[in-house]
Amino acid sequence: MRTGSEPATARSPLRLRFWLSLWGLLWAGFGVTAFALIGRPGWAAACGVLFLVVLADMVTVLRRLRQGPHWQPGRDVPPYEPDHRGTPPGGRSSP
């Protein structure tokens, strides 16, 4: 059931992001090496930039995983009630 508060209560699958980052890190490293060996410096540089972006994402994911359940609540934690910002019950203010 949709509550309308999905963007505010979304939970990121951090472990999945970690494994996908690791996979991307391996492929980007392979791309840098392969393109450097065959003499394609432009593609090697592009793979190097991708390597740095993926590495930054992995560092962020690891930091959030180590921060614990504040960043990654379990399934037993109910969604947060959305902030209605002073709107009366029923959702609409009078014109």
Notes on the structure:
Helix 2 runs antiparallel to helix 3. The two termini are 30 Å apart. Helices cover 58% and strands 0% of the residues. The chain is elongated and about 60 Å long. The chain is mostly helical and 95 residues long. The mean pLDDT is 80.
Strand content: under 5%
- The low-confidence runs, each spanning 5 or more residues with pLDDT under 50, are none
Helix content class: 55-70%
Tell me about the biggest sheet? none
- Label the overall shape: elongated
Number of helices: 3
Distance between the termini: 30 Å
Structural class: mainly alpha
Secondary-structure element order, N to C: HHH
The whole-number mean of residue pLDDT values reads: 80
Write down the Rg. Answer: 21 Å
Number of strands: 0
Supply the key terms.
mainly alpha; 3 helices
Which helices and strands, and how do they pair?
Layout (H helix, E strand, L loop, with lengths): L5 H4 L4 H24 L3 H27 L28
Please give a quick description of this structure.
Helix content is 58%, strand content 0%. By secondary structure, it is mainly alpha-helical.
